[in-house]
Amino acid sequence: MAVRTAAPADSGEPSLTATTQVFSFSRAVPAKRDYYEVLGVERTAPAPDIKRAYRKAAMQWHPDRNPGNPEAEERFKEAAEAFEVLSDDNKRRLYDQYGHEGPSRAGFSGFQGTDEIFSRFSDLFGDLFGNLGFGGRRDGPQRGGDLKTRVVIPFAEAVSGVERELTVQRREACDDCNGSGAAPGTRPQTCSQCGGHGQVIHRQGFFTIQTTCPRCQGQGSMITSPCKTCSGTGAVQREATLKVNIPAGVDDGQTLRIPGRGMAGVKGGPPGNLYVEVAVQPDERFQRDEYDVHSKVTISMVQAALGCTVKAATLSGDIDLELEAGTQPNHVITRKGKGVPVIGGRGFGDHHIHVEVTVPTKLSGDQEDLLRELAELGGESVAEPKKGFFSSLRRRKRGC
Ligand SMILES: [Zn+2]
Ligand SMILES: [Zn+2]
């Protein structure tokens, strides 16, 4: 076994003379850990032990299982770097002889990112993570799935905007099996038919045909005792509570797209989006038309003729509305900029108040007398008193 020594002084490397440079250098690049220590193996460990140790470390620090954890990502890279060196006879010999500087002389300078690691060791990851339960391609970052939900809000909250807590069902990695789908204490077994490749090769005459392994369905591994919690799928549905700002001016049937609030991404992929469909409960006082809103006030013909002050509902509460003498039926009062706010804060629609004038259907004797007097003053022709009409009708029915 070669003894590790320091790099020879005449290595040909440019020497660092300025003290400040040395300090900044040593701070920027923290001391690398010993590769054997990283994988937790003896210096004399044979290749299969190193592979096994690496798989264990990669499993533990895999970005799928440690989303948003930069320390885990560093550990994941560190383990991959250790494995890259110790699994290669030449690099391992250089490392044993010269330490970390050895492999870098052979042109190896570590991995830039996790993507590079996945593509470098895709055959290893294929059977390691084939059963994580996320589906799809396993060899690169994947965007998280979209979430869709629906919320019902009162009319007033659609106008004012509101913050709501929404409960959504999300698919997340199962805690009990760390997303592997294998019962705790067990692990997926490499498929015996394809040896973990997920593909099998048939020979047919002169041709070789490669097909998806029928035993493991291309996963490369099989779960012999499935995790009870997730039935071997590696994922569970879980409730998550999300705070959502519903903007002022939202209308019934609109869908809000909230970027990045869907399911977590896989392997550093971006998260999916949250789509919230908004249902607005109607308010019998208001009719909405885009950003304009319509309402009505009802007054009697006498109020219309003489003018009056009435209570009118507005989006900001009731107001006293003054109506001039001689207000006509279906008169519309438009209150500029008092409608629904335009989403995104660009002004407001208008509020239109429609005046409805009612004509009395039942009059007391005194009221009828006053109206007849009014008609006479204006020289208007009006029907004969009802009494006479009904009595003559009765007379006719009796056949007199
Ligand atoms: Zn499970
Ligand atoms: Zn197989």
Summary tags:
single chain, 400 residues, alpha+beta, Helix Hairpins, HSP40/DNAj peptide-binding domain, four-stranded mixed β-sheet, three-stranded mixed β-sheet, 29% helix, binds zinc ion, cytoplasm, unfolded protein binding, ATP binding
Report on the structure:
The chain has 400 residues and is of the alpha+beta class. Among the domains are: 19-129, Helix Hairpins (Orthogonal Bundle); 287-358, HSP40/DNAj peptide-binding domain, CATH 2.60.260; 372-398, no CATH class. Helices cover 29% and strands 24% of the residues. The protein contains twelve helices and 15 strands. A hairpin with a 2-residue loop joins strand 12 (308-314) and strand 13 (317-323). Helix 3 runs antiparallel to helix 4. The longest helix is centred in the N-terminal third of the chain and has 17 residues, at 70-86. The termini are far apart. The model is unreliable at 1-29, 127-140 and 391-400 (pLDDT under 50). The chain binds zinc ion (ZN) (2 copies). One zinc ion binds next to loops. Residues 34-99 form the J domain. GO terms for molecular function: ATP binding; heat shock protein binding; unfolded protein binding; zinc ion binding. Keywords: Chaperone, Cytoplasm, DNA replication, Metal-binding, Repeat, Stress response, Zinc, Zinc-finger.
Q: Largest sheet at a glance?
A: 4 strands, mixed
Please state the average pLDDT score: 79
Q: What pattern of helices and strands is seen along the backbone?
A: HHHHHHHHEHEEEEEEEEEEHEEEEHH
Cα-atom radius of gyration: 40 Å
Q: In CATH, what is the class of the domain at 19-129?
A: Mainly Alpha
* Shape call: rod-shaped
Question: Which architecture name of the domain at 19-129 does CATH use?
Answer: Orthogonal Bundle
Which small molecules are bound?
A: zinc ion
**Helix proportion:** 25-40%
Number of strands: 15
CATH superfamily of the domain at 19-129: DnaJ domain
Protein name: Chaperone protein DnaJ
CXXCXGXG motif repeats: 174-181, 191-198, 213-220, 227-234
InterPro entries: DnaJ, DnaJ_C, DnaJ_domain, DnaJ_domain_CS, HSP40/DnaJ_pept-bd, HSP_DnaJ_Cys-rich_dom, HSP_DnaJ_Cys-rich_dom_sf, J_dom_sf
Zinc finger (CR-type): 161-239
